Amino acid sequence: MARSRAARELGLKRGEFDLAVMLGRIRTVADPAGGRRRVRREEIDRVREVPGFPESLRERIKAVGTAEGATLMEITPARFTRLARAGVLTPVKFYINRYRAIVWLYLAEELRQFAKSEANAALLTGRAPQVLRDRLGEGVDLRARNWRGRHAGFLLRQSEDPWERAAAGASLLDPVQLAEMVRDPYERAYLNRLKPEPFTQAPPESPTTRIVERITTADDPDELSWLRANLILTLEEARRLRPAPRPGRPPIVATPRPHPTLDPLPWPAARVDPEQAERRDEPRGLLKWLRRRRN
Where is this region: Disordered (predicted)? Predict the structure, then answer.
């Protein structure tokens, strides 16, 4: 059934349903006709049979903003924002408010788990570790980058075809960068057709669209290197499976893959300064990857 109908049958708002799909709480299947992914009746029944439904599902997919997130973690909103900017907390979604400001939302379940872990205690009380203060002093804001990493993982998990996987990575690249990597105009057109739906229905030149494009387009050097490498691998696999559609040629129906599926490369972690990594007086774990080598 269509996703909109599935959301109604489960008593979920559209945003709740989409987030549940992204988090893997609700499984979808490809549409044989090539449309948006759909939901089987058996999946609706499975979700309904989970103990405590629907409140248990809503609790697991609840997304909160900075103020509520800070309350859950028993810290100030200012500290919460610093942790998010430093990349310690990863947004699960975002929206643009009427003032054209970016509002980041976080998974409440993740925040509670983070706050309960003794390994994170030093981040929640007292003076922030020096490595974190140094990064924030340099103007670091990793919220968009971390969201893109999470979103890329979701897109790749939803992709059942190498062309779809290639389109998932291509959707995070600037059109100029994509054109440099994919010279064939028919392949580019096919990738653009397979890209996920845009995050906004605003006019292309509107301020809202420009803000969304800035969030959804990769700009970090490590991130770009990962996307380029992953696109090269997935395109090689896709071309072996079937060529991109071209005018005057009947489309080739996908057949069982003759080649093993290539696992996507892991999303890049920030570079670690080996000298700082040797220090014993600083917290480990989530802060460790923040210690980048300075140029």
Answer: 242-295
**Residue 54 falls inside a structural domain:** yes
Instruction: Quote the number of domains for the chain.
Output: 3
Give Cα 49 to chain centroid, integer Å: 28
Whole domain around residue 114: which residue ranges? Answer: 63-142
**Residue 55: exposed, middle, or buried by beta-carbon count in 10 A (0-12, 13-18, 19+)?**
exposed
Per-chain mean pLDDT for the chain? 86
- Please check whether residue 267 lies inside any domain of the structure: no
If asked whether residues 34 and 49 sit together in one domain, one would say yes
For residue 150, is pLDDT > 60? yes
Check whether residue 69 and residue 133 sit in a common domain.
yes
Cα dist from 55 to 14, 44, 47, 59, 107, whole Å: 16, 15, 12, 6, 15
The confidence score (pLDDT) of residue 252 equals 54
pLDDT at 290 over 50: no
Tokens of 251: 């489309």
**Boundary-marking domain end, from 142, 173, 195:** 142
Whether residues 93 and 133 share a domain: the answer is yes
Helix runs in the chain, H state only: 3-9, 14-22, 41-48, 55-60, 66-73, 77-85, 108-116, 121-124, 130-137, 143-158, 162-170, 175-181, 185-194, 207-216, 221-241, 274-277
